[in-house]
Amino acid sequence: MLNYLVDTGEKPVIDLYPPPPGIPRRTGRYTTATVPIRDGRALLPQLSLDKQGFLLQRHETRVVNCYDEHEVQAVYYPAGARLVQAGTGTATVGVCAHTGRCAAAAQRAAHGAQEPVRRAPNDYTLRSGPQRVRELLAADEAAARRQRRFVEINVWRPIRGPGAAFQG
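Structure (tokenized):
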């Protein structure tokens, strides 16, 4: 079962993480849906960004410690940009941020990681997508990009399990 944000036509105010003591938790309205989840690796040759909206690719990394901010930015960001360029054919990739997630509270505290998200991600909207382009690119290039098709792509990788190369 997955939790989805309900489209009420209003901008939700969502606290993904517990607020500080004394601050009320605000959330959007959610609905749950039972959906089949299958191992996508069996569909690898048939998956495409245009049809399914995602790809699964094996991608090795030289990053050893995924909780080391400098190492991730210096090594993984350029490699991730090359991965996206190879998969889309785009000329320009801007890398904006990363979030380490971990279920164990002790590990989160030790590494500055966030808890796993417990609902379907909804990272970009019609307003925030173009805003991200303005933040990542020079003003003239951002203006030109927003006149054509552009895409926001999240790159996810497991820390453990199939295809994982990180230690933590």
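The chain has a mean pLDDT of 78. The radius of gyration is 18 Å.
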